[in-house]
């Protein structure tokens, strides 16, 4: 596991947006960021799940969160601009984005892959990340210490049979991260990196590996050290990296 002991108030005063915050790894990240003092903005497509995470954060006495119910599959440019305006008027700042929401799509040879599913996976896993980042960059640029984290996968580094659009979308995610990191490499205040969670017990993992016993792999809470490290000030200067949440802590340099 990535080795990092986060100070208690690591993210105090920061405002952080998390996509897919209602479940799985996104939910765990929202809780750990809020626990570390951040005001978290919970984005997801299922309002009841967002409300449950919202309540959990409030009941724990962490900073009051906000919710953005939004379907990344259907949202257009205007919806992202509207969200950016809302964040600006409500909070006046944004210090972090965790791009976490993804669709798995089909597990089938590309020869048989349904083109409609292919489009949908690319829209949610890639296009939404671009549109959301583009709309929020003006706010991120105003932060003293801004961190953008994308979520990759081992199949986004080496293609694997039957992982279809998901694998292709994760290669695109690595590419988007590298491109953006290079564009802001001299900014002094914006870093952009990827996390590869590794096998983690969530709905997506159960769907991909139905025969696996979830208690034999890491939980979403277990993998939080790297999520905290990359979002907080201790990773200042680290950019363009793709880091394994369950690795030994050495960044994989793709440059
Ligand atoms: P889950 O499927 O458990 O959670 C994904 C979250 O994304 C859910 O909250 C889901 O919402 C949300 N989401 C999906 N589609 C949309 C959409 N169209 N609009 C808004 N929100 C959406 O996945 P994980 O927690 O396992 O995965 C999190 C990230 O980690 C993903 O990027 C995944 O690719 C990556 N990953 C996971 C691994 C693992 O072993 N779990 C391994 C490698 C990478 P809802 O709850 O409403 O469905």
What does this structure look like?
This protein is of the alpha/beta class and 255 residues long. The chain has a single domain, classed as 3-Layer(aba) Sandwich (Rossmann fold), CATH 3.40.50.720. 40% of the residues lie in helices and 16% in strands. It has seven helices and ten strands. The chain has helices spanning 24-35, 47-59, 77-91, 115-142, 164-183, 203-208, 224-231; strands at 15-19, 39-44, 66-69, 96-98, 146-151, 190-196, 200-201, 218-219, 241-244, 252-253. The strands form two sheets. It has an eight-stranded mixed beta sheet, sandwiched between helices. A two-stranded parallel sheet has the order 7-8. α3 runs parallel beside α4 (115-142) and α4 (115-142) packs parallel to α5. The chain is globular and about 50 Å long. The two termini are 24 Å apart. The structure holds NADPH dihydro-nicotinamide-adenine-dinucleotide phosphate.
Summarize the structure.
The chain has 255 residues and is α/β, with parallel strands linked by helices. The protein is 40% helix and 16% strand. The protein has one domain: NAD(P)-binding Rossmann-like Domain (Rossmann fold).
């Amino acid at each position: 596991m990535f080795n990092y002991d986060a100070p208690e108030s690591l993210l105090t005063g920061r405002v952080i947006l998390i996509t897919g915050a209602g479940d799985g790894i996104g939910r765990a990240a929202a809780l750990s960021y809020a626990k570390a003092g951040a005001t978290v903005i919970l984005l997801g497509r299922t309002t009841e799940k967002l409300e449950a995470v919202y309540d959990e954060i409030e009941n724990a006495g962490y900073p009051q969160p906000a919710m953005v119910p939004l379907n990344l599959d259907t949202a257009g440019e205007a919806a992202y601009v509207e969200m950016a305006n809302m964040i600006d008027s409500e909070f006046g700042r944004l210090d972090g984005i965790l791009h976490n929401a993804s669709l798995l799509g089909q597990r089938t040879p590309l020869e048989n892959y349904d083109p409609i599913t292919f489009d949908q996976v690319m829209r949610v896993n890639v296009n939404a990340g671009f549109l959301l980042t583009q709309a929020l960059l003006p706010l991120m640029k105003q932060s003293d210490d801004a961190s953008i984290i994308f979520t990759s996968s081992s199949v986004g580094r080496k293609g694997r049979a039957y992982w279809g659009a998901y694998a292709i979308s994760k290669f695109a995610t690595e590419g988007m991260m590298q491109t953006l990191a290079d564009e802001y490499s001299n900014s002094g205040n914006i870093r952009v990196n990827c996390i590869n969670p590794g096998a983690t017990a969530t709905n997506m993992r159960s769907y991909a590996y139905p025969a696996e016993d979830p208690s034999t792999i890491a939980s979403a809470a277990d993998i939080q050290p790297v999520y905290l490290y990359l979002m907080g000030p201790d990773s200042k200067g680290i950019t363009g990296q793709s880091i394994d949440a369950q690795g030994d802590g050495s960044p994989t340099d793709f440059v």
